[in-house]
Amino acid sequence: MTNAEPPAISVRHLSHRFGRFEVLRDVSFDVHQGEIFGFIGPNGAGKTTTIRVLATLLEPMVGRVKVLGHDVTLKPELVRRHIGYMPDHAGVYDRVTVREYLEFFADAYRVPTAGTSYAVVDASMELTDLTRLSDKIVSTMSKGMKQRLQLARVLLHDPKVLILDEPASDLDPRARIEIRDLLTELRAMGKTILLSSHILTELADVVTSVAIMERGRIVVSGPIGEIAEALERQRRGERPAQAPYSPEAGAPHAPAPEVPRIVERNVKLRVLAPFERVQGVLSELPFVTSVRLGPMATVQVALAGDDRAVAFMVRALVVAELQVVSVEPERNELERIFLEATRGDLQ
Amino acid sequence: MKNEGRSELGWLKPLLTNPNAIWIREVRQAARLDRTPWLLGGITLLLALLVASIGGTASRASISPAKVGLAVNQVFFSLAYGVVMLVGPAVAANTIAAEREGRTWEALVLTGMTPAQIARGKFLSSYTTLSLYIIAIAPIGALAFVFGGTTATETVVGFILLFMLAALWVAFGLAISAAMTSLRGALVLTLILAILMGPTLYGIFGPGVGALAHEHWRQIPAGLPIWLPVAYTRAAFGMDYLVLLVALPFVAVALPAWFLYETTVANLSAPTDDRSSGLKRWFIASTLALAGLAASIPGSLGTGAGRLLNPASLAAHASLWILSTFFGLVALLFMSEPSGPSRRLTTKWETKGTGALARSLGPGLARTFALIMGLETAAFAAATGGAVFALVAFHGGAEVAPVALSGAFIWAHVLFFTGLCAWIRSRSDGVIGARVIVVAIMTALVVVPWGFAAVGGITTKQNDWLALGAPNPFYLFVVLTQLRASSPNQILITVGYISILVFAALGIFLFALAARKAHAVNAAARLHYAQMDAALAQEDSAIHAP
Ligand SMILES: Nc1ncnc2c1ncn2[C@@H]1O[C@H](COP(=O)(O)OP(=O)(O)OP(=O)(O)O)[C@@H](O)[C@H]1O
Ligand SMILES: [Mg+2]
């Protein structure tokens, strides 16, 4: 990060209360330009509250929040010009069509072509695949279509930062895949995107960084790769006695089941061999804790260890002349990070 | 964004070249509403039937056609006023609360449209709808011509006034809507208030003031509720015409309209934005207008020879009481002031280079109440001075002492009330609660002293006990009675003078306490932000250090 280019979003020591209830406690994180930033947390964690502060709709009680270097408390007009905010449950106007709805907002934003050609309206309908529906009355559209309309709306004034609260919550699987592609496309256009969600799979492939929030606190934040590494390091560093398998250290300790710090990792295997043979080979390995037959002839292996343990397991299978077709983590990286990071507070 | 000019012409121009987006959208939405033509048709039909039946009954009772025409004219405009009073607020109350309830409000605010632009757009769309109703019923108004008795000018003036009142009622609905989050709540509250206030105002300004107008200008027929159009064409021109028929009605429409507009804008602005300046500009202008009218009306009435009551003294007392009501409401209104301008606003002032004068209109308990007290003093001085001048010039100096005493007495009590409002506000968190406390204290001040005075007076049969009523604003009437009496009770009069000094001093003292408290709160807030900024700056330098 250089001083010339401020982070797209910078949140420092943000705290907020509703009456006596502390909703946000000392929240700090940065979103750098060009990122797709996932804001994850269980219901009621405070995601929407944080997002409303970012969107200048709620003034922070303590702390400093900047968007593109502009303080949301001091310069809300500047911030508003540069953000596109899509609320989690937006309403639409009765008795207007999709085109009229978007033209209204183009007028309100005073975009250059407003009142004449409304080229931006066509462009954003095109981008969100709404062109066919341009004469539909918005209040009669389905939830998912309305969500697309909201997305089209926030793109009208070409904002640099998109702040999307649960953008895919009402979308069908196909629309979800489409929105992921759209987000990647928008990122390629140079936009920074912050989106919140509690559905992890919806984000896994597109986000570059995450912040995990729980009960008003940021549990962990940063680029996904870095967080994964940090967690791995933390795991080994904190509990050396129960370190998971590592080849250099020789035979590992048997993982004690009452120790929760060691993460059980579940791996899905497809091997061209009968289950019993696979089970025979794998149960030899000390770090494997269970081997089960999963659906569609997969083998579900629970093991305590990092990537090296997985590699060692594959080697053992290959050495035993079993043909390994695929090895997949049962959960993706994001889900693992989430489970690990929030585990302490969930009890 | 750029079009933020405040001059009135400044916003008329973009209205024509670049119409308000909200207006366009809402007119479009209204045009698609299926029930609009039915409602329009229904109301028109109903009015037509009512007016026709009245005309029919009157003509069968062999009343002269001219009289029937005048009656039809009066009935039509009274009913039209009823339509405006109900439809206007109802249409307007919908608009802003609907955005909040329908969760479209935030998207609208984030477009960068200012609260003022939003308020204007909402006003234009509601006013357009209401105008449709007026235009739909207009042909019925022409029925009066069938009978005669009114002139075309009078009818046209009637419609102009109707459109002005329509604007006022729309603005009223918007002001309520802007403060509410629930659609139903806004609608119900607006309609209840409209139903309570509408007929009351009609009664006061229609038949009530109409009777006074008939007293003053015999050309205006007695008992007309819709007398103003008739007055314009039939009253004799003169100084009184200018003050009473031009200045007074203009002020009576413009000031409430302006007030409603500023309230709407303030309620649409964020709490840390400047919600004060607009309302204060309105307050200053209203004070100038009201004080000017109060100072000039006693003189404009002439000698009034042969009348039972001295018209100048009567007008002076009425003006003083109206001024005190105005300032009392203003003090309650400005109890919503924060203790000082927010950090956001201070930053805005600094970047814009806002001058000291403009800042002095901004939010802040101390500066606001200092302004109120200053204007109160100036207004009461002007009103009393104007009245005394008129009494000396036209009435040989009669009634000078009672009027001067009333001016000073009411001023002192208003000053006390204002100081009390400031003080209570500085000590409490909630605005509504603080207002309730102020009203409770004033009620106690009215009731308790009279109670003691009454008990004392009844048991001892002595007049002096009335002095116990001095903490009460209505003690003024005791002093006035004594001043006009042939053998006045000097104790009661002296107590009146003392109470003037005590209440004025008390008001200033309470204000000083409030100002000190507000300064302390502001200083604490500044310290808090300074500490926070310092901590953040330290953290920043730690991050950027190699
Ligand atoms: N205006 C408000 N007044 C009082 N409490 C509120 C308000 N808004 C939110 N809260 C509370 O603050 C907490 C955080 O709410 P928030 O909407 O930020 O959570 P969230 O992470 O967005 O949850 P979800 O995943 O359900 O959208 C909740 O407990 C909620 O009840
Ligand atoms: Mg939420």
Question: What is the topological layout?
Answer:
The complex is a heterodimer of chains A (347) and B (546).
Chain A (H helix, E strand, L loop, with lengths): L8 E10 L2 E11 L4 E5 L6 H8 L7 E6 L2 E2 L4 H7 E4 L11 H12 L9 H9 L15 H13 L5 E5 L7 H16 L3 E6 L11 E6 L2 E7 H15 L25 E8 L3 H8 L5 E6 L5 E6 L2 H13 L4 E6 L3 H14 L1
Parallel strand pairs in A: 3-8, 3-9, 6-7, 7-8
Antiparallel strand pairs in A: 1-2, 1-4, 4-5, 9-10, 11-13, 11-14, 12-13
Helix pairs in contact in A: 3-4, 4-5, 7-10
Chain B lengths: L7 H10 L3 H11 L3 H26 L4 H37 L3 H6 L4 H27 L1 H5 L4 H28 L3 H34 L11 H7 L4 H30 L8 H24 L10 H23 L9 H10 L3 H5 L4 H31 L4 H27 L4 H30 L14 H10 L5 H55 L2
Bound molecules: adenosine-5'-triphosphate and magnesium ion.
Q: How is this structure best described in words?
A:
The complex is a heterodimer of chains A (347) and B (546). By secondary structure, chain A is an alpha/beta fold. Chain A has helices spanning 47-54, 76-82, 98-109, 119-127, 143-155, 173-188, 224-238, 275-282, 307-319, 333-346; strands at 9-18, 21-31, 36-40, 62-67, 70-71, 83-86, 161-165, 192-197, 209-214, 217-223, 264-271, 288-293, 299-304, 324-329. A six-stranded mixed β-sheet of chain A has the order 6-7-8-3-9-10, with helices on both faces. Chain A has a four-stranded antiparallel β-sheet with strand order 2-1-4-5, covered by helices on one side. In chain A, a hairpin with a 2-residue loop joins strand 9 (209-214) and strand 10 (217-223). The radius of gyration of chain A is 24 Å and the shape is globular. Chain A starts with 8 loop residues before the first strand and ends with a helix. Chain B is an all-alpha fold. Chain B folds into two domains: 21-269, no CATH class; 270-546, no CATH class. Chain B is 80% helix and 0% strand. Chain B is built from 20 helices and no strands. Chain B is flat. The A-B interface holds A 3, 12-13, 55-57, 59, 62-64, 73-77, 80-81, 83, 85, 87, 89-96, 100, 104-105, 107-110, 115, 153, 157 and B 1, 18, 21-22, 24-25, 28-29, 32-33, 102-104, 106-113, 270, 272, 343-344, 347-348, 532-533, 535-536, 539, 544. The structure holds adenosine-5'-triphosphate and magnesium ion. Adenosine-5'-triphosphate binds next to strand 2 and helix 1 of chain A. Adenosine-5'-triphosphate binds at residues 18, 21, 23, 41, 43-49, 88, 198 of chain A.
